[in-house]
Request: fold
Amino acid sequence: MSDVLAPTHVHQRLIRVFVSSTFRDMGAEREELVKKIFPELRKLCESRGVTWGEVDLRWGVTEEQAAEGKVLPICLAEIERSRPYFIGLLGERYGWVPDAIASELVEQEPWLREHREDSVTELEILHGVLNDPEMAARAFFYLRDPAYLATVPEAERGDYRESDSARTAKLAALKQRIRDSGFPVREDYPNSKTLGALVLADFMAMIDALFPVGSEPDPLERQAGEHESFAASRAGIYIGRQDYFERLDAHAAGEEPPLVVLGESGCGKSALLANWAVSRRTAHPEELVLGHFIGASAQSSDWQTMCRRFMGELGRRFEIEAEIPDQPDELRLAFANSLSMAAARGRTILVIDALNQLEDREGAADLLWLPPLLPANVRLVMSTLPGRSFDEVTKRGWPTLAVEPLQEEERRELIERYLAQYTKRLSTERVEHIASAPQAANPLYLRALLEELRIFGSYEKLDERIDHYLAAQTVDFLYEKILERYEEDYDYEDGRTGLARDAMSPIWAARRGLSEAELLDLLGKEGEPLPRAIWSPLYLATEQSLVNRAGLVTFFHDYLRRAVQKRYLPSEEARESAHLRLADYFGNDRLAPRAIDELPWQLAQARSWQRLFDLLADLEFLKAAWQGDGLAVKACWARVEENSELRLTDAYRPIVAEPTDHTPSALYIVSRLLDETGHPSEALEIRALLVKFFRVLGDRAGLSTASVAKRRASRPGASSTRR
Reply:
């Protein structure tokens, strides 16, 4: 039996900062940060391809949460998710000291035993920063000038200072420990405006250092990050068999045809491939191991995108200069040539997970994109479920590796080790009861069940809860029960109904997922985002059901996606409405990087063809979208024309008629789009004008580019794009 943990941490372009402060005296500071400074930092991060999020739990904490001891566990858990980013704000208040700390929390965090009389604010600072030297250079403290009290009306000063000498002494000691720690401390800021300026300057400098201008990921890097994040989400405690890894290693070292990994959905194929790929890279750094996990992103199921990605990665690793065509037939040939050129330079291992999820276009399900014979130095491992792809690999007689259901011994081991992560255990009788259930042979089912039991609070009713979940004979049914539990526990956190539904529906509708800031905006009311203290309990409870990929929250597995669709979005009308809601949201700032990525896709999914036509006809948007992903622009136009009477040439007819009214860069993009979508005559008219324009200006570089483009547009045949 093998226990393989992924040893690498996927670096995400994500800043999630925890804001710690006392409550009653820091309203102006939080207002300044949340409404003015953080939006500016979020915009800067977006321009660098980074996702920004802040965690301020002082908004929205209910009396019930405080009375039930829920505040501190939520704070500590959110600090863990936000590491290593932390902001500490202190004035002249020490803050709220909880009446008691739950024994269960003390078991999880033994250091709390020595701090039972400390305020929540001090506990946050200890846990987030002072107890952990790894936080250096990512934590910032801001101490308000005590003279600020003089500006507060006399009747309100009780909210801004301590009257108890013992608490005053504890606050002074905490401040001194912060000063002595070596972390950045800004002393004596006079007001909220000054604080905002300090925070903005500190975090802009940090962002510049971590993610400088020019470090923005290109489309190839972004796709690689999505697949690495997906693989990381499948890593962790993995109970597998040593013979699986031995078989995969033998294939990687050999010369046999592609190896096909088989097994029922949820049996651990993705986890096996993700863990093995990490293991292989570590053991054989001289090899290029490329993993493509279909389902990792919205575009990952497109065979053309997959082949282009592989070609781009091969070109980057082996310095291969090759055209990457747009047309399917040419792309298949170029992909085969790219594999041959790579094979001559080194060993390459391609790992493709969930082959059955490829979109059925241009014979993708029949593997027409794959050369019938791979070079000996290119190894291919694929996983699939029954379907046309499975039928095709069977017909080709390729070798297979079957991932078997967990045996009872393996189930018991997984139960014990999974719960041990959280210092929990079940009695032998309960472990046997779960392990003997046939559906527990599916690792995904078992993990989802254990996660539900881990957070179940009533020990006396634990047997009843186990039977409740084991009544679900399939993974789909289990996730429906999990959604029911989310509704029972979190739908009334703020006196509102439908929090689980309202959170899960936009995640379902999103192309790549949603940032927490976007989710909170969508869940808020009257232009105000949902308070973090209302969102965090649900988010923490869904830790194993949702996954954060490159700063975007999405579903861990397609089982949950199907359960959400069945429960909350059962009709086509409801699904289109969910997409339109996101289109309206992203349409508020259509030139923002996230909007450029999501908005056209949302309109296409909502079948809002006129709105999509109008958006793509907008030259400002077209220019931004084309620079980001020209192939996606062409794909959107293809969908518009397939599903409506609207035509690309009609959108740009005014530009062809009056090209002098537009900038050369916009004209060049329109001419390329027209040329590469089968309208060379219209493209030729624009490019002829560009040649004249650059000749008059004496712009040799522009003239050369325009002249080459003009010649290409004037001859028949499809175009290609160089990557």
User: Anything to note?
Assistant: Residues 619-643 form the longest helix (25 residues). The longest strand covers residues 14-21. Confidence is low (pLDDT under 50) at residues 1-11, 717-723.
